Amino acid sequence: MTPDLICPAGSLPALKTAIDHGADAVYAGFKNATNARNFAGLNFDDKALASGIDYAHRRGRQVLVAINTFPQPGRSGAWRQAVDAAAELGVDAVILADVGLMAYAREQHPELRLHLSVQGSASNYEAVNFCRREFGIRRVVLPRVLTLAQVAHLIANTEVEVEVFGFGSLCVMNEGRCWLSSFATGESPNTVGACSPAKYVRWEKRLAQAGEAPGEHMEARLNGILIDRFAPRESAGYPTLCKGRFAVRGDIYYALEEPTSLNVLEVLPELLAIGVAAIKVEGRQRSPAYVAQVTRTLRAALDRARRGNYQVEAAWQADLAKVSEGRQATLGAYSRPWR
Hints:
By secondary structure, the chain is an alpha/beta fold. It has helices at 12-20, 46-58, 76-89, 99-108, 125-135, 148-156, 180-185, 189-192, 268-273, 288-307, 314-321; strands spanning 4-8, 25-28, 62-67, 93-96, 114-116, 139-141, 161-169, 201-207, 216-222, 225-230, 245-248, 251-254, 261-263, 278-281, 329-330. The chain folds into 2 domains: 4-170 and 260-334, Aldolase class I (TIM Barrel, Alpha-Beta Barrel); 199-254, no CATH class. It has 11 helices and 15 strands. The strands form 3 sheets. Strands 1-2-3-4-5-6-7-14 form an 8-stranded parallel barrel, surrounded by 6 helices. Strands 8-9-10 form a 3-stranded antiparallel β-sheet, with no helix packed on it. Strands 11-12 form a two-stranded antiparallel ribbon. Helix 3 (76-89) crosses helix 4. The longest helix is centred in the C-terminal third of the chain and has 20 residues, at 288-307. The relative contact order is 0.15.
């Protein structure tokens, strides 16, 4: 069985692009704090989501809605309303992290398919099977911290479908357990819906100092904390603490995580062999052009793997390199050759 290709839809144009380029399903979110990619200018209101669902369903594809932050005291009604809205709009599944919200969804919408979000931090089959037994989840999205052998072990011990990340930004944490942004800003990405909330981000230009390349330099700060400095014409990604460059013992480098993209093309046959049900592309904050490039490439690779005689095409790697974070790619935790 070929895994489903699940692609990001941060906007209606991105949703249509993913469908047009071969996604089996897209995942999207509402324009509010129930969504872990709650960036200004992105995401869906009810009207746009209804249009996207219609577009996907007419082409035999699915729409999954991520309600993957954790309800806040005194405001939990907004999360329940999001579940209700998703069900009423006819989504194919909701992706939830909070167990209370799973219980609500199962009670109020028993026919609604539930997926356990990566933000739920389920990295072993006991946690997955608990959520299946108590809340009826049908699929789990695994954190990006497991080896292939660990993923295979989990699949062998659960009836829940397993979805893994196949391309996009990595996370140094076991998702759902990040404290870095909340340490810097007082607002957790697991609750407010964004790593490095935009209201705390500042870009400041300055002239070169002694010993620096001439020209205008850029500094990125999060709540006043200097995260990175960029030389003239140096590509600058969205600033997050985990991917910042810091002075450590006299050197300035990426102290926690170097910008790089997960890319599973090399191990795609192994993922199929162990029974992965879906391959997920990260990047709801990225452009429709990114969505088109990655979806088209992974669609071709999955189709080749399904037919057998799989071989990674140089053109595939070149195409993905154009949209990789830091222009680099890695197998991440899937391959740990020192073990």
